[in-house]
Amino acid sequence: MTLIDDLRRVFKTSISFILKAVKIPRSTYYYTKHSQGRKYDDDQVIQAIDEIRQTDAKYTQKYGYRRITLVMHEQGFKVNHKRVLRIMKEQGWTCQAFNKQTRKYNSYKGVVGRIAKNKLHRRFKTDRPYQKLVADVSEFRYGQMSQSERIYLEPIMDLFSGEILAFNISAHPTLEFALKPLKEALDGLPELPYRTTVHTDQGFQYQHKQWQKTLKTHHTFQSMSRKATCLEPV
């Protein structure tokens, strides 16, 4: 790479022209140049990561590459997070604490029905009882947290008082599971001079035509939060 820099200075031309003449890709040139300027070699980085992991194995072996990089920076060991990730993969040190078996439940399965407009727009306060209701499906784990050791809860809450009007618990988050508390809550509402709005996320249960038909039967508005705002309803 020093030769290329010398040629550039001698001929006073662009680096692109020199690289094209010697048939070296730009990416190879810049990667090699960056590598030559590294303060630490891979062995030093491996040793530093291993020392962090051994300080308190109960916790640090659950650290991901971002957390490891942050600790290294705090220790004055300046290294790029991508390099830390590469080395941790090569050493088999990547964090396994979060995967398909342990990640949080997400009822969103894509657009499988009709997406309703967001009528609340984060206006979750109201001075009228039963004007704004919210529903959401939550997953709870127990035992060894296996696929068979999970239960699901769906409450229907009134935003005026915080009262849980109805709820359901089941081992499976099916459409029927979600519809049961909705029907109970709407059937129990008194006559009101205004229409009720039920706000949810974009879970597949709430996109289903049966959920929407139930709301329509009770003359109730449907509202959905924006995608990727699953915490919004509650």
From TrEMBL:
GO molecular function, one term: nucleic acid binding
A single GO BP: DNA integration
Top-rank taxon, per record: Bacteria
Name of one Pfam family that matches: rve
Segments forming domain Integrase catalytic: 125-234
SUPFAM superfamilies: Ribonuclease H-like (SSF53098)
Role summary: Involved in the transposition of the insertion sequence.
Name of the protein in its database record: Transposase
Organism this protein belongs to: Lactiplantibacillus pentosus DSM 20314
Taxonomy of the source species: Bacteria, Bacillati, Bacillota, Bacilli, Lactobacillales
